[in-house]
Amino acid sequence: MSQRNSVSLGILLMVASTVVFALQDGLSRHLAGTYNTWMVVMIRYWFFAAFVIAIAARSKGGLRRAARTDQPLLQITRGLMLAGEICVAIYGFTLLGLINSHAVFVCYPLLVAALSGPVLGETVGWRRWLAIAIGFVGVMIILQPGTGVFDPAAIIPLISALMFALYALLTRYAARRDTTETSFFWTGTVGAVVMTGIGVWFWEPMTSDDWVWMGMLCVSGVTGHWLLIKCYEVAEAGAVQPFAYFHLVWASLLGLFVFGEALRNNVLIGAGLIVAAGLFTLWRERVKG
């Protein structure tokens, strides 16, 4: 099958990746509720780095070609940003649960659109600015600032979304001069080095049962990224990206039926506004493209 010629297969792979990534989030929430976040992320990155290195070693030119870049500072910054974002996101899962965390985090495409002007010099038209504003009304509905029920911890997934948006923008910027393989290689290796430097100081003995869960977490991370890579190999990003919102659906179902979380009306309404605004911005980007 030639590259980028099957939208239906791309959609299937994207939806499959959202299922796997939601399972990864559930496993992360479970493990980080028992062990510290630094250690959980460190072990997860060991397997991620091994996967990245294996992919690079099998590619044309091998590890030397994958690692070659003339913008190492940018690539290191990207790796640091993603590793930090994962730590913040998992910490948010343990405090707020999957439903509330993902309901806010799902605004990251709007942050990407809003920041693409100052970071990448792209033009953002009034329609997308209106969609961004509507999306952030949704965020405010979820967070309920100024009310007696506002929890400052609810800001954590918003910080996570901002960090991921910056990571996505830096990835776009890096892509002007580096290949996808090079950026992927630096993402995994930098994250593994940094998290090992932090995580080894927070090592805790794990039970044999939890090592099984940890193994499943690592396998789900590798599987999710593999599905995503294959997805973008067979279909254009603009055609499949809207289906990434299924991640919110699966994570919410896990939160409801596995972790006993509640789905409040304000979260449902706010997330609906954010997703609608996000889908509109994706559509506008595709029209402009």
Number of strands: 0
Strand content: under 5%
Largest sheet: none
Question: Could you say which structural class the secondary elements and strand pairing correspond to?
Answer: mainly alpha
Radius of gyration: 19 Å
Query: Any idea how many domains?
Result: 1
Query: What gross morphology would you assign?
Result: globular
Mean pLDDT: 89
Low-pLDDT segments, ≥5 res: none
How many separate helices?
12
Describe the structure.
It is a single chain. The radius of gyration is 19 Å and the shape is globular. Helix 1 crosses helix 4, helix 4 runs antiparallel to helix 7 (156-174) and helix 4 (72-105) packs across helix 12. The mean pLDDT is 89. The protein has one domain. It has helices at residues 7-32, 37-58, 62-67, 72-105, 108-120, 126-143, 156-174, 180-199, 208-234, 237-240, 246-257, 265-288. It starts with 6 loop residues before the first helix and ends with a helix. The chain is mainly α. It is built from twelve helices and no strands.
Kindly list the characteristics that best describe this protein.
289 residues; globular; 12 helices; mainly alpha; 78% helix
Ordered list of secondary-structure elements with their pairings:
Layout: H1 7-32, H2 37-58, H3 62-67, H4 72-105, H5 108-120, H6 126-143, H7 156-174, H8 180-199, H9 208-234, H10 237-240, H11 246-257, H12 265-288
A few lines on this structure:
The chain has 289 residues and is mainly α.
